[in-house]
Amino acid sequence: MRNIVLINLLLVLIISPLFGFAQTIDSIKSTTLKEVMIVDTIKRSPIKKESSSRIDNTMIEKIETVSVGDLAKFIAGVNVKDYGGIGGLKTISVRGLGSNHSAVIYDGIGVTDFQTGQVDLSKFSSTNIKEINLYNGQSYSHLQPARALASSNAFFIETLKPSFDSSERFKTILKTSYGSFNYANLGVNSAFKINNIWTSVLDLDINNTSGNYPYLLHYGNNENDSTSKEIRKNSDYFGFRGEWNLFGSFNAKSDIKLKAYYFYSERGLPMSTTLYYLNSGQRLWDENFFLQSIFTHKFSDKLQYRNHLKALYSYTHYYDSKALTSLGYQSDEYFQREYYMNNVVSYSIFKDFSTSLSNDVFLNNLSSPNIFVRTARRVSSLSALSLLYDNSKLLINGNILHTLVEDKSDLSSTSQIKNHFSPFISFGYSFQNTLTISLFYKDIFRMPTFNDLYFNKVSESKLRPEITKQFNLHIEYLRSLGFYKTSSINVSLDIYHNRVKDKIVAVPQRNLFIWSVINYGQVNINGIDLQTMFKAYISHSIDLIIRGTYSYQRVVDASNKESVTYGNQIPYTPLHSGTLFLNLSHPFIDFSYTLSFVGSRYSLPENIERNLLKPYQDHSISISKDFNFKKQKINLGLSCLNLLGDNYEVVINYPMPQRQFRINIKIYL
Known about the structure:
Elements: H1 2-28, E1 52-56, H2 57-62, H3 68-72, E2 78-82, E3 90-94, E4 102-106, E5 109-111, E6 129-136, E7 153-159, E8 170-179, E9 183-193, E10 198-209, E11 214-218, E12 227-231, E13 237-249, E14 254-268, E15 282-298, E16 303-320, E17 330-350, E18 353-367, E19 375-390, E20 394-409, E21 416-431, E22 435-446, H4 450-454, E23 466-481, E24 485-501, E25 504-508, E26 515-519, E27 522-538, E28 542-557, E29 576-585, E30 590-598, E31 601-602, E32 612-613, E33 616-629, E34 632-641, E35 649-651, E36 654-655, E37 660-668
């Protein structure tokens, strides 16, 4: 703890003179510079940022989804682990690295769960999302927190900020959906322009489903074995999300973003569908609340500063009415808190060349009165020095990240301190803004989570930190086409190699609350990501969008040549996967089709037929039409998910819903 404090005092001493220097510069200058509005966090260069994938609001509105987790599967290299429909946990694994290697950045600040390390993307509704960006490696913002640099990839989620005409001050969108298995959704988004400085946005969302969908139960692994039609039990879900945003633009040099977020859910945890045991008594309650702020100030054209603050409270209650305990039941409660602060300063040394210094300090603690380890605490400091050269043709970016972590639990009177230096370097060149070639190398250090280390139902507490090394070659081609008006095509190819030492792998056991965690030793990952996008305005007022992705991931155990699993694909990582999105938009009607396919994969480390999960395809369609009623715009939509009614499993013994129908209504007030 003392070392972390000393490092932060040193950073303050380094940053403070820069502020004073900026004020001196301002006092010497006699020429008034033209004021420039502060733009968004991520700098967008004409050079395509290597391995970045983006889903914009146009595509988000046309795909029938409930949460951000449903959208993530349309990005190449992303494997979404879905544990059962609407109420199921949804986590992402990018390029076989596991969900803990993805930094989820929600409106500029990281979303964390130090208990599990897995961010459940089902907690974030897709109705108020402006865009989603995945950066393999990292993004190129001058003013991003060090936490966004401290993961193998960064998953940025940006919510909508309203725009108003000169005569407008109030906007409201009402949304409701109803569908199969008693699914119901109600949402409202209200934006209010308080004055020329402040804008307020309130977004509320409620989801509910009984989750009693049918599935086919197999009594064995052989196709000739008996089967029976069953109804999923204890799969109900209720969730409420409330989010309030306040945007303040004081002048052309300063702005602030304030956010208050609350999430509550109650759900059943269905058991794995093992033979003769289909009932479950597990329930799970989640409650999350956080406050965050981002303040930005531009001292001059050369010097900028940003501050990120966040306070988080999280509560989880697990209950099993059928547990074999002396009480006849099991009831565990977990309380998680985080206090976070980041300061980052960026300085432009000369044209096209800039540097930034970023430091994060955060305190995390987990307490539970019901388990062996009652309290665990982690104090972390992340410090990053970055350099960026970008002249619109050549881009060179690099940083050195220092991680310092102190862990302590009530099992020991001494603390465990870990530290690591992580370098990142990338080069990119654009040929006439049409063809871009870039490559990067990144080293990352990841600590085990609280569950990995201390939760006695999961594993032993002697897990080692992961060390990840990434190599990536990116080629991207973008061109406007002449045979259709405003048509364009974009094709990108990524070839990558990752090496993970002491990889931590978690898989569910009896239910979604009890997991098994192990160190793999070393995992080697080789892969290819291919993405293509075609947009065109066709005759008869038809807009066409086609987007396709394909991923090849060879993720193998490379730790011990004598092991029976040496050279085997690690669990739940498909060799082949991909998606297709097609949209035809016309003033009369809008039509969308999506396809998601996942190849065969294994549920356990040993690649034998008994552990093989069959490949699956998920086809979905939706149609919608706009109506005007008493000067109000109404959008009416119909959709069918899993059109062919396939019976498939993303995770073994956790069947997904079959064919579903939904009706969607949006009213713009």
